[in-house]
From TrEMBL:
InterPro entries tied to this protein: Beta_Casp, MBL, Metallo-B-lactamas, RibonucZ/Hydroxyglut_hydro, RMMBL
Annotated Metallo-beta-lactamase domain residues: 15-248
Domain Beta-Casp, residue spans: 253-377
GO molecular function: hydrolase activity; RNA endonuclease activity
Keywords: Hydrolase
Lineage, top ranks: Bacteria, Pseudomonadati, Bacteroidota, Cytophagia, Cytophagales
Name by which UniProt lists this protein: Metallo-beta-lactamase family protein
Length: 466
């Protein structure tokens, strides 16, 4: 059986997940993500695909993060017309996120045009909102744990990955003339003890595995997230200040809302108004109700009167005017707003208005990448630039850890141990060189796995000698 894979991304880096599988008479992609981060990586988003998108016959998505779906509008714009398989929640999340991404691409091009910093006289967006909308009719939602065919000899099944709502591990069975081969893509793996999501599913069999390695070199310390969050909030409230929590709309926001609800219930923080000021986060939170079978928060499933996403102190602010009223807010209250690294979004105007007051506090709940405003704040800079102005940072800055959506090294190994027999080959993907290297070494030493860390655009025959 001749099956090859070409690594079009997430090779030696964490973004741009795309793997091109070629069965000879059938070519399909697993994930179609954007490259993010450094400029030289982002430039790859503009590269031509190694084959005409019109020749590609299907796409299988693992989950709705931009680094896994963000290139879909470009591919469709360039001629792809096949089915895009994903879980039902992923389809809904993808619509929300791709529209936002299209808008962002348009705004960036417009900004570059105005500022004249682009080499091009008329900088074009990578894709537009309209291009994003053209993806929607191609999305084909599928259930978890129910095998489906994408080709007479290829069957696919989704299993819970525990990473974000709808995130899946993908198992692909390829039936040849004389033999059957099983491929397993981990997608991004979540935590084993997440209060909202099911833990990553253990898969008993695989011939070839693709395993993510975002935190392949890190063991997360057992931080008491809930307590740390309470400590930061109570510290701010002891000064009669306001708490701002920059959070990503998907996953992190809902986890923060869950913890806040628990803390109030246990009497560990006062029952103050909480403002969720992000239309995208509101839309995403609503999906937890619609797709209650895909997570383990029973209260939402049973639609009790009060639960983390619905209670008398929780206010959803969708409109811009509502958001603006928070500029004058003083005293004990909590604002949750995106983006999580304070690189854009409504959280900017909250920071603009509330950073200069020493009573207030900003609580970061996720990793702050280099070069972001969030990182500068966490590093303790005394001024940050927002809307073209230097804003004095008088508010106190806090970092609460333990809300990561990624499995750590131990959890990755735990997942790998779930195979009854070791796979014949494992590709270590979706990690920086260092963390991919450390995980590869661990898998070799502890489980005897045969591992490869692929390079960008490298190809492999999967079953040669198997
Ligand atoms: Zn992800």
């Amino acid at each position: 059986m001749d099956v090859s894979v070409k690594f079009l991304g997430a090779a030696g880096t964490v973004t741009g997940s795309r793997y091109l599988l070629d069965l000879g008479d059938f070519e399909f992609l697993v994930d179609c993500g954007l490259f993010q981060g450094r400029r030289e990586l982002r430039r790859r988003n503009w590269d031509k695909f190694p084959m005409p998108p019109t020749d590609m016959e299907a796409i299988i998505l693992t989950h709705a993060h931009m680094d896994h779906i963000g290139c879909l509008p470009k591919l469709v714009k360039d001629g792809f017309r096949g089915p895009i398989y994903c879980t039902a929640v992923t389809a809904e999340l993808a619509k929300i996120l791709l529209l936002d991404s299209g808008k962002l691409q348009e705004e960036e091009a417009e900004y570059a045009r105005k500022k004249g910093y682009s080499k091009h006289e008329n900088p074009e967006p990578l894709y537009t909102v309209e291009d994003a909308e053209a993806v929607f009719p191609l999305l084909v939602p599928k259930d978890f744990k129910k095998p489906f065919s994408i080709h007479p000899s290829v069957e696919v099944t989704y299993y819970h990955a525990g990473h974000i709502l709808g995130a899946a591990i993908v198992r692909i069975v390829i039936k040849g003339d004389s033999q059957t081969k099983k491929l397993v893509f981990s997608g991004d793996l979540g935590r084993y003890h997440d209060p909202l999501l099911y833990p990553p599913t253990l898969i008993p069999e695989a011939d070839v595995v693709w395993i993510e390695s975002t935190y392949g070199d890190r063991v997360s310390t057992t931080v008491k997230t809930e307590e740390e969050l309470a400590k930061a909030i109570n510290d701010v409230f002891s000064r009669d200040g306001l708490v701002i929590i920059p959070a990503f709309a998907v996953g992190r926001t809902q986890l923060v809302m869950y913890y806040l609800y628990q803390l109030v219930k246990k009497g560990k923080i006062p029952n103050v108004p909480i403002y969720l000021d992000s239309p995208m986060a509101i839309n995403v939170s609503k999906l937890y109700k619609e797709f209650h079978q895909d997570h383990q928060l029973i209260a939402v499933l049973e639609d009790t009167v009060q639960h983390p996403f619905q209670h008398s102190q929780l206010h959803y602010y969708r409109k811009q005017e509502q958001s603006r009223t928070l500029n004058d807010l003083k005293g004990k209250a909590i604002i949750i707003s995106a983006s999580g690294m304070a690189t854009g979004g409504r959280v900017l105007h909250h920071l603009f208005h509330h950073l200069p007051d020493e009573r207030n506090g900003v609580v970061f709940v996720g990793y702050q990448a280099e070069g972001t405003r969030g990182r500068r704040l966490v590093n303790g800079e005394s001024e940050v630039r927002i809307y073209g102005q230097e804003v004095p940072v008088k508010a106190k800055i806090y970092s609460v850890e333990g809300l990561s959506a990624h499995a750590d090294q131990n959890e990755l190994i735990e997942w790998a141990e779930g195979f009854n027999q070791k796979p014949k080959l494992a590709f270590i993907v979706h990690g920086e060189e260092e963390s991919a290297g450390v995980l590869a070494q661990k898998l070799k030493e502890e489980l005897g796995w045969n591992t490869i860390i692929p390079n960008y655009l490298e190809s492999f025959m999967l079953f040669e000698g198997i």
